[in-house]
Structure formats: structure tokens, C-alpha cells
Amino acid sequence: MLVACDVYRPAAIKQLQVVGSSLNIPVFANENTKDVVLIAKQAMSQAISKLNDVVILDTAGRLHIDEELMQELKNVKANVKPHEILLVVDSMTGQDAVNVAQSFNENLGIDGIILTKLDGDTRRRCCAFC
Ligand SMILES: Nc1nc2c(ncn2[C@@H]2O[C@H](COP(=O)(O)OP(=O)(O)OP(=O)(O)O)[C@@H](O)[C@H]2O)c(=O)[nH]1
Ligand SMILES: [Mg+2]
């Protein structure tokens, strides 16, 4: 199950619903609240009752310096106790992705990082030394 926990960016919920339906994966959303912890808890209850064995909470994009959004993530973590927290970073971020990952790890504790758009960067390097 995919869970729409980005309640800030316009159309983020719709985007997840489109992605979910194209992959035939159920999407949980609650457009009546901006309480992300509540949404995550409701989604977990529904996933349990519908026997969804994997739940992915899609949270809002943010910069590590955004204290308010970082606190939101901490609240979700404390309430939902996810098995894994993955940070998704655009590869165009370059080597700063290391700093971003370190900051998230110190503030929140992450289990891994996913670098997207490796296919789309024309400045792509062939190795760590280029
Ligand atoms: N070519 C390519 N496009 C990608 C890749 N990952 C994401 N995109 C595209 O980049 C755009 C932004 O992707 P999103 O999934 O909305 O990015 P996001 O990090 O969730 O952004 P926010 O929800 O605003 O935080 C979309 O048009 C995606 O299709 C990738 O690995 N390769
Ligand atoms: Mg997103």
C-alpha cells in the first residue's frame, strides 16, 4: 500500500494515486486532514485489515534545514515505527547528497538512501574520479 503523507504540495496526493493505479497498488489518502501522523496511523490500520504486507509512506519533500518538517518525520517515526526509513535524493544534488544523508541520519536516523535520475544527468560521471 502507498500512503499519501505529502499534504503540502498541491497535487501530491493525485500524483501518488496515478502512480498507484498504473502499478495496480492500493493508495491510502485522507484529504480531510493535514495531520500526517493521523494519516499514517489510519493507513496502517487499513493495511492490516486489508492484509497489505508492505506499506510505503510517501512523505513531503524537504530540506534538512526545515526543522518543522523534520519534526513531522520524527513524529511519524515515533508513532508508526517503520521497519525502514529511506531518503530519496535527486542525483543532480551531486556530492551534497552525502551531507544531506548525514544530516538526516543524525536528526532522524535513516536506513538507506535512494538516488533518482541517474539516467537523466547529462553531466553523469563514469566513475568516482571524473
Ligand atoms: N528520468 C527520470 N525521471 C525521474 C526519476 N525519478 C523521478 N523522476 C521524475 O521526476 C519528477 C519528480 O519526481 P517526484 O517523484 O515527484 O519527486 P519527489 O522527490 O517525490 O518530489 P516531491 O514529492 O515534490 O518531494 C517526476 O516527473 C518523475 O517522473 C528517475 O529516476 N529518472
Ligand atoms: Mg514525492
Please render the helix and strand layout as text.
Blueprint: E1 2-5, H1 12-23, E2 27-28, H2 36-49, E3 56-59, H3 67-80, E4 86-90, H4 96-107, E5 112-116
Parallel strand pairs: 1-2, 1-3, 4-5
Helix pairs in contact: 2-3
The structure holds guanosine-5'-triphosphate (GTP) and magnesium ion.
Detailed description of the structure:
The protein has a domain at 2-83: P-loop containing nucleotide triphosphate hydrolases (Rossmann fold), CATH 3.40.50. The N and C termini lie far apart (40 Å). It is 40% helix and 15% strand. It contains four helices and five strands, in the order E-H-E-H-E-H-E-H-E. Helix 2 (36-49) packs parallel to helix 3 (67-80). It is globular and about 50 Å long. The protein has helices spanning 12-23, 36-49, 67-80, 96-107; strands at residues 2-5, 27-28, 56-59, 86-90, 112-116. The protein is α/β, with parallel strands linked by helices. The model has no long low-confidence stretch (mean pLDDT 92). The longest helix is centred in the first third of the chain and has 14 residues, at 36-49. A three-stranded parallel β-sheet has the order 2-1-3. The chain has a two-stranded parallel ribbon with strand order 4-5. The structure holds guanosine-5'-triphosphate and magnesium ion. Magnesium ion binds next to loops.
What integer is the average pLDDT?
92
Helix/strand-derived category reads: alpha/beta
Q: Can you write the helix and strand succession as a string?
A: EHEHEHEHE
Radius of gyration: 16 Å
Shape: globular
Major beta sheet, specifics?
3 strands, parallel
Bound molecules: guanosine-5'-triphosphate, magnesium ion
Please mark out the parts with pLDDT under 50 across 5 or more consecutive residues, or reply none.
Answer: none
- Number of DSSP E strands: 5
| Secondary-structure arrangement, i.e. CATH architecture of the domain at 2-83 | 3-Layer(aba) Sandwich
Span of the ends, CA to CA = 40 Å
Walk across the major sheet and give the strand order: 2-1-3
Q: How many helix segments?
A: 4
Q: What is the CATH superfamily of the domain at 2-83?
A: P-loop containing nucleotide triphosphate hydrolases
CATH topology of the domain at 2-83: Rossmann fold
What fraction, in percent, of the residue positions are helical? 40-55%
The top-level CATH class of the domain at 2-83 is: Alpha Beta
Strand content: 15-25%
